[in-house]
TrEMBL record:
Alphabetized UniProt keyword annotations: Aminopeptidase, Hydrolase, Protease
Domain Creatinase N-terminal: 13-133
Source species: Pseudoalteromonas citrea
Full protein name: Aminopeptidase P family protein
Domain Peptidase M24: 141-342
A Pfam family: Peptidase_M24
């Protein structure tokens, strides 16, 4: 593990030099974890070419010392030393200092800059660019999270019966993932029945399952902070002709997009392969604008699979492919897998069967 973080810090130092930065103030907890290994919050990182200083308080200082790699851990007395004063004391190199602009509120920044006496430059995407290419350890974590999700779903589907509520089934799925070793849930589980499945990010309710209902479940497990994200859609008992057509179209779109994935493929090309199928099926206005995203410490991170993104996929990206159709008052269908981009194609990390009918 020490080598992993040393390599990341070395790569980040090269990025600092390339951007003429002496150091960077890192505020995003996921970015701090990526560079140091510290998994807590209430922490701030000063990353320079030669040193990494992690600022926290009494609640996390011992944990930070245990988890972080190649870091000088500082315990700040929050009552007697403002964060800006502390940072000013620890920044010894003159020059341009970047800061993690996407993770700072206006109020926080005003408070810090009142005391910080250095030249500052807002920076976005510098660490996230590194994070988009997963190393072997990161892939193993995501793979394990996906395995847990696969197994938990299989167990939970055995509980499907008329009268069960969305909340009950979602709670069972979440609990089973944690029984199988998940650190928590990747995000609040989306589990919806019937017409409510047309809500792309709906919240489980007390609605009961009836025969002929869609069942849409979008969920994920977490291992060492790394997330999985999978969606499956079913119909309970016998589907209507419309329901079957929706499912068949989404599955065909999903397959078309997957066939385009390889290192060097444009994100827009992958997206449009699915969008064209959905349009040909008559569902263009009922499908979303993007069909996937990067996956890692964030649920949604670069690269994003959208029609306007000309970024090319790279070996080591872990992305989702998740085309969907959402028709108000009728229901929704989404099929989502996590895949590792390889030089010649991809490796699928999620394996739950894409069957449609649940008896």
């Amino acid at each position: 593990m020490v080598t992993i973080y040393s390599n990341r810090q070395t790569e980040f130092s090269h990025k600092l030099l390339k951007n003429d930065l002496t150091a960077m103030l890192v505020f995003g907890h996921e970015n701090i974890q990526y560079l140091t290994g510290f998994t807590g919050n209430a922490a701030y990182l000063i990353a320079s070419h030669t040193s990494y200083t992690l600022i926290t308080d009494y609640r996390y200082v011992n944990r930070a010392k245990q988890e972080s790699h190649n870091c000088n851990v500082i315990c700040r007395d929050r009552e007697n030393e403002a964060l800006g004063v502390c940072m000013n004391r620890l920044i010894t190199d003159a020059g341009l200092i970047g800061f993690d602009a996407a993770y700072v509120t206006v109020a926080m920044w005003q408070d810090i800059t009142r005391d910080l006496k250095c030249q500052l430059q807002p920076i976005t995407g510098l660490i996230e660019e590194l994070r988009s290419i997963k190393d072997d350890w990161e892939v193993r974590c995501i793979r394990k999270a996906a395995e847990i999700a696969d197994a938990a779903l299989a167990d939970t589907l055995e509980q499907v019966k008329a009268g069960i509520t969305e909340k009950q089934l979602a709670a069972s799925l979440d609990y089973r993932m944690q029984q199988l070793g998940s650190d928590g849930v990747s995000f609040e589980t989306i589990l919806l029945f019937g017409a409510r499945s047309a809500l792309p990010h709906g919240k489980p309710s007390d609605v009961q399952l009836r025969e002929g209902d869609f069942i849409l479940v979008d969920f994920g497990a977490v291992v060492n902070g790394y997330r999985s994200d999978m969606t499956r859609t079913y119909v309970y008992k016998t589907p209507t002709q419309e329901q079957q057509h929706m499912f068949d179209t989404v599955l065909k779109a999903h397959t078309a997009a997957m066939s385009e994935v390889c290192s060097g493929a444009e994100c827009a090309t992958v997206n449009d392969a699915a969008a064209n199928i959905m349009g040909a099926g008559g569902y263009q206005k009922y499908s979303g604008k993007g069909i996937g995203h990067g996956l890692g410490l964030f649920l949604h991170e670069a690269p994003f699979i959208t029609t306007k993104n000309k970024t090319r996929l790279d070996t080591g990206n872990v992305i989702t492919i998740e085309p969907g159709i959402y028709i108000p008052e009728v229901g929704g269908v989404r099929i989502e897998d996590d895949i590792l981009v390889t030089r010649d194609g991809y490796e699928c990390l999620t394996f739950a069967p894409k069957k449609f009918i649940l008896e």
